[in-house]
Amino acid sequence: xxxxxTQLIHHPYRAPDTFDAPQPGVxxxxxxxxPDVAALHDRDWKHKTGYTYGLHGTPTTxxxxxxxxxxxxxxxxxxxxxxxxxxxxxxxxxLKSGDExxxxxxxxxxxxxxxxxxxxAYGIRWTLYDPMRPDDLAAKLSADTRLVWLEAPGSVTxxxxxxxxxxxxxxxxxxxxxLDNTWGAGLAFDPFQLDGDGLAVDASVHAxxxxxxxxxxxxxxxxxxxxxxxxxxxxxxxMRLGLGVGANDAELLLRSLSTVALRYDAHDAxxxxxxxxxxxxxxxxxxxxxxxxxxxxxAHWKALCGAxxxxxxxxxxxxxxxxxxxxxxxxxxALRLFRIGYSWGGPISLVVPYDIRTMRDxxxxxxxxxxxxxxxxxGLEGAxxxxxxxxxxxxxxxxxx
Length: 401
Hints:
Layout: H1 4-9, H2 37-42, H3 59-72, E1 76-80, H4 83-94, E2 100-104, H5 109-121, E3 125-129, H6 134-140, E4 145-151, H7 163-173, E5 176-180, E6 203-207, E7 221-225, H8 228-240, H9 247-257, H10 260-279, E8 284-288, H11 298-305, E9 314-319, H12 325-334, E10 339-340, E11 350-354, E12 373-377, H13 383-394
Parallel strand pairs: 2-3, 2-4, 4-5, 5-6, 10-11
Antiparallel strand pairs: 1-7, 6-7, 8-9, 9-12, 11-12
Helix pairs in contact: 3-9, 4-5, 4-8
């Protein structure tokens, strides 16, 4: 070889494979080399017995999948470009024209939008149920129901359902049930061990964007299962959709995953401190945090999560109705440490006001509050500093709108 480009591309040096360090190596690949044609024909992309193409896995993504399966108590894991991509993979894999999917009325909004638009266009019927009333789910399960989405607690409004009761109803009807476990993060409770008898969801979907990432800078999702047949069905859809994640994003997740439990507990402790403080403020009518006495579904949270005594660093408040929506928005604008932005689980505390009546179906579940709801995602700042920030912003409510 005389051409320098050829020499550089086909250089014979290979690094020794005995290197070991705290952080795993990062393998970037679309093309994967085979030693010969026999290996090309023999390798099975469906299982972690070898590498065939970057989209089907590298040492970096395989390692992340295995660790995430352990985190959530599962046996298999698929990675997706976002939490919503993971949700869409499940629904597109398990549903076909003529089928029905049931979703909790307080579910993550984009999951509902996916059902209302894309799934409906494919001839898939979607129905909302009240997750706080297992009898409502029981009444709406039909011969066409193929998938029930679960969420604990509900997105934004934080009601914690009787998750085991909902899963038992699905089990009795032979209906697949999948949990959006982003809030629990595999830490608050085990989705594959909901009681002493091994009651389990069929799959756990997780927006890794939140706590596993922890930096507010990575978009990724996962689907964790324990049943091989279900995993392979999902994996085939995953392959046909061409879903993959970048090696550098997987690297960031692997780096952050070792501290996820420590960070989750820190978020939790600060959130409970601030939620209890908010409960004593006259400007606030209701605090919605599953771990607080009197919160919707607190008994269900205690039954499922009490042994670990863990909750996400997330809570919502409903302002007293005497404060107008404009005043509450001014409160949000006045916050200095809390930033206005979606998502949660990162180091910086976030705040978002919501109009819940536009997000819920009054025919399905009742929203009993008149005031404006605001959701707080508690970061890793000092709780006393965040409390002072809340206090100075609450003072703006005294100014007439």
